Amino acid sequence: MTKSAFMALFLFLANAVSAQQQFDRQELLIQTEDGKTHTFEVELALTPQERSQGLMHRESMPADHGMLFDFGESRPVSMWMKNTPLPLDMVFIQRDGTISHIYERAVPFSETIIDSRGPVAYVLELNGGRADELGIDVGDRVINKRIDAGK
């Protein structure tokens, strides 16, 4: 094997490993206005690299799972679906855990910008259609260690 072929193989394998980055997980609850509580296991996207990767290249996700993006501060946030084959609901959350906006059924692979419509500290991604299916709406409360701690 030539040196350049070996280097190309090494870079390919390094990229494959980094693309399969493991995320820390936590329990997250959503309390709806009608008193129901929905429990999810969420992966945490905390660093710029983790937030950039998000759920890209995922073809499926269990119904009771999601990903919580923590931006570390309240600010306007823009998301997109580039390289994401899984339709998603994007739940935009204020620092105190109040849902301020929900973008339902984001189109897979779309590069259309999805705007938070104001400052938020977190975005929760769920399988597309889950928010509607569970009756999750603007004004509902999200409870999680990161959100409760205000980190």
Look at the structure and give the CATH class.
Mainly Beta
Numbering strands along the chain, what is their spatial order in the largest sheet?
Answer: 5-4-6-3-2-1-7
The tally of domains stands at 1
The N- to C-terminal Cα distance equals: 50 Å
> What's the SSE pattern?
HEEHEEEEHEH
CATH fold descriptor: Jelly Rolls
The number of strands is 7
Structural class: alpha+beta
Q: Describe the global form.
A: globular
Q: Largest sheet, described in full?
A: 7 strands, mixed
- Write the CATH homologous superfamily: Protein of unknown function DUF192
Helix content: 10-25%
Strand content: 35-45%
The radius of gyration computed from the alpha-carbon positions, rounded to a whole number of angstroms, is: 17 Å
Number of helical regions: 4
pLDDT below 50 for ≥5 consecutive residues: which ranges? none
The CATH architecture would be Sandwich
Mean pLDDT: 88
Could you describe the 3D structure shown?
It holds the Pfam family DUF192. Keywords: Signal. InterPro entries: DUF192 (IPR003795), Saro_0823-like_sf (IPR038695). The protein starts with a helix and ends with a helix. It has 4 helices and 7 strands; from the N terminus they run αββαββββαβα. A hairpin with a 5-residue loop joins strand 1 and strand 2. It is globular, with a radius of gyration of 17 Å. It has helices at 3-19, 48-53, 130-134, 145-149, and strands at residues 25-31, 37-45, 65-79, 88-93, 99-106, 114-127, 141-143. The longest helix has 17 residues, at 3-19. The chain has a single domain (24-149), classed as Sandwich (Jelly Rolls), CATH 2.60.120. The mean pLDDT is 88. The protein is α+β, with helices and mostly antiparallel strands and 151 residues long. It has a 7-stranded mixed sheet.
